[in-house]
Inverse folding.
């Protein structure tokens, strides 16, 4: 979940100027902030979007809706390439039925998940298409390589760069030779777990969502793989994937597990040792539940048990203690105020210690960075000793230097369409 900052008129004019400059160059990342006006429509324009789902939550999230907005990319001339890809995938899976392997793309849309018509929970891009032999067979495919909101890029950048800095074999996971266990708490539209599973073939991603209506919205209206849904028993909701899901997601949806569960209950009963955990959980009132950061809570103690003792890394999306931006596009230094500091300290104190002793190595590493354009911060707590040299804690500058250096490797390994460096260096503050 994200909070958009209130900007001064001076800052707004600066953004307009930046947009004019950037529109003249090719933007590889379709989730770039340049397209943010497409995600949500314009306040003064006539495009208020089209509501494709609207219902009342039974889990305290109020009115849950999904609103669609047109997308300018990819251009229609590029659709034939995707139609060819669909035809080839279908031919491999249904070799005996190749004459029905022709597809037609209807277009692309942004789809935004909202709570109570105000809180923007998640933004994804979907493709709509159908098979020529059955024009009524319209299906949606969420675009797995697009993270549309800056805080998600921040979480991915700091999380993957940090765990790679702990000597974790990220390349092995990317090549699929090493399993990487990832937990996402707070599913939303599902763009984060889908991005991770798509980019990292060795990733086994568990995504936790307390609200069945949000799960339904993600799958039915936002193109998340239906085969990922899991019963409380651990069995798949669908015993076998539909044919079109195999065409779209074979090789990916087998490693996605979407659970309907309370986060605390899930982690208390979990036996999985997670390498990487992402937490982005806000309710209908836009509040991060206290039980997910209270140092005395069963949740943090259970998460500590489920976090890998050598390199386990946790990333938490937080609202900054400010609702405006500085002139450089960062939240001001006061963004690490009392509330954020309390949450940071709780995670660092409980999770940073691996429990293997009382040595300085057990204290782990914690830091927080601000998110560009939004009043959000990304908190990172990791185990492992990359913040140490000969048992002595490194300074902020040395830790940041190593993260910056490693970020270039992560970008290259994953072929990311955005720069990790942009998100790692923003208002970097160590948590002691």
């Amino acid at each position: 979940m994200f909070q958009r900052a209130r900007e001064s008129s001076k800052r707004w004019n600066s953004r307009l100027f930046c947009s004019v400059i950037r529109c003249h160059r090719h933007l590889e990342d379709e989730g770039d902030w340049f397209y943010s006006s497409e995600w949500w429509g314009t306040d003064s324009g006539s495009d208020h979007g089209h509501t494709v789902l609207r219902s009342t939550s039974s889990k305290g999230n109020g009115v849950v809706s999904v609103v669609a907005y047109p997308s300018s990319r990819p251009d229609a001339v590029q659709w034939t390439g995707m139609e060819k890809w669909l035809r080839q995938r279908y031919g491999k899976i249904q070799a005996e039925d190749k004459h029905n392997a022709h597809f037609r793309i209807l277009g692309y849309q942004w789809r935004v998940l909202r709570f109570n018509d105000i809180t923007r929970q998640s933004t994804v891009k979907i493709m709509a298409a159908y098979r020529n032999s059955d024009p009524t067979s319209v299906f949606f495919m969420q675009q797995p390589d697009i993270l549309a909101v800056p805080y998600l890029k921040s979480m991915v950048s700091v999380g993957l760069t940090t765990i790679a800095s702990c000597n974790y074999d990220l390349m092995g996971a990317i090549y699929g030779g090493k399993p990487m266990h990832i937990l996402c708490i707070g599913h939303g539209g599902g763009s984060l777990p889908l991005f991770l599973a798509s980019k990292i073939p060795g990733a086994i991603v568990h995504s936790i969502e307390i609200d069945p209506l949000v799960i339904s919205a993600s799958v039915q209206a936002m193109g998340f793989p239906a085969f990922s849904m899991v019963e409380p028993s651990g069995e798949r909701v669908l015993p076998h994937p539909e044919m079109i899901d195999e065409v779209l997601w074979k090789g990916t949806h087998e490693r996605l597990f979407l659970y309907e569960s309370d986060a605390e209950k899930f982690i208390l009963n979990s036996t999985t040792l997670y390498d990487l955990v992402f937490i982005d959980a806000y309710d209908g009132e836009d509040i991060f539940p206290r039980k997910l950061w209270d140092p005395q809570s069963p949740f943090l103690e259970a998460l500590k048990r489920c976090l890998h003792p050598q390199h386990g890394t946790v990333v938490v999306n937080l609202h900054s203690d400010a609702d405006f931006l500085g002139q450089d596009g960062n939240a001001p230094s006061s963004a690490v105020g009392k509330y954020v500091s309390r949450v940071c300290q709780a995670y660092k104190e409980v999770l940073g210690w691996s429990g293997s002793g009382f040595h300085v190595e057990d204290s782990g590493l914690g830091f927080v960075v601000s998110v560009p354009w939004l009043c959000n911060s990304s908190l990172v707590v990791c185990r492992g000793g990359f913040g140490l040299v000969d048992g002595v804690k490194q300074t902020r500058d040395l830790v940041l230097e190593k993260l910056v250096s490693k970020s270039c490797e992560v970008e290259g390994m994953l072929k990311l369409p955005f720069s990790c460096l942009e998100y790692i260096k923003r208002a970097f503050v160590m948590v002691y």
